[in-house]
């Protein structure tokens, strides 16, 4: 763990918790990135070409950082043992992005043209499969059946979440519990697993391991709620994708569900036409925004995200005080206040 970098960065007032986490683990993340590049290699030229296209597009590496940081909370000497697992969670995440963009017919990812538009849907799906397989090779390096159970279960849950989201898309009868089940599966499950494997590798107690799992789960739920809220309110350049994509794709997210709870018959017909049947005009997104504002749907979504962020912070209460614990605590709040 690069303590010198951590001290230097944390003394900078404008440094975000994510910056502080990244700088405190800078040396470790360089090793993880080397692993990622090495395991992306293949004699089939299209595989590293496509994988590098997406990974080089940026991303905050939040999930591998959580894996490294969750180990640092318990035993800094054992962080190196989590390098393959940090790489594995990034591969799982990247694979799901490739598959998501094909399913969603996305045009942009992290400010660049989506990989499926550059390389085609078939290549994107197959390279996503390749990255999934590589993640399992990396898991095996831990020599821990418990780690293999945690990450393989997370991969299965993510797939279930994607199918569940497909089932709720265009269904304006979707309610909050179903929505929360989708985001808990497709997003929060990997956050939870990323945080859980660190303490497992450090032989932490069952109570502490469960606390980190729950921290990751609540953090991931808050993260996705904010993602879905930003889709109606963010700066596209900072967000790294077009705003309104969820609306155009007919996804049932927290802001729409809150607006539908109070909708007039005319407004419900609007949502049925635009989201249910995907019959949209250029003016419809502006109309949707007006309805969301009328019912404070974005504010209610933000409030719900805060509830889960505070639950994440509470999970850390019984852990020994440390600079990493402080960063994790602050990261939960930053998940809400970010603009990307």
How is this structure best summarized?
The chain is mostly helical and 340 residues long.
What are its keywords?
340 residues, mainly alpha, Farnesyl Diphosphate Synthase, 18 helices, globular
Shape: globular
SS strand fraction: under 5%
- The main sheet orders its strands as 1-2
Task: Look up the CATH topology.
Answer: Farnesyl Diphosphate Synthase
Q: What is the name of the CATH class?
A: Mainly Alpha
The count of domains is 1
Helix content: over 70%
Alpha-beta classification: mainly alpha
Q: How many beta strands in the DSSP annotation?
A: 2
Task: Name the average pLDDT.
Answer: 90
What does this structure look like?
This protein has 340 residues and is an all-alpha fold. The protein has a single domain, classed as Farnesyl Diphosphate Synthase. It contains 18 helices and 2 strands. It has a two-stranded antiparallel ribbon with strand order 1-2. A hairpin with a 2-residue loop joins β1 and β2. α2 packs across α18 and α6 runs antiparallel to α10. The chain is globular. The relative contact order is 0.11. The N terminus is likely disordered.
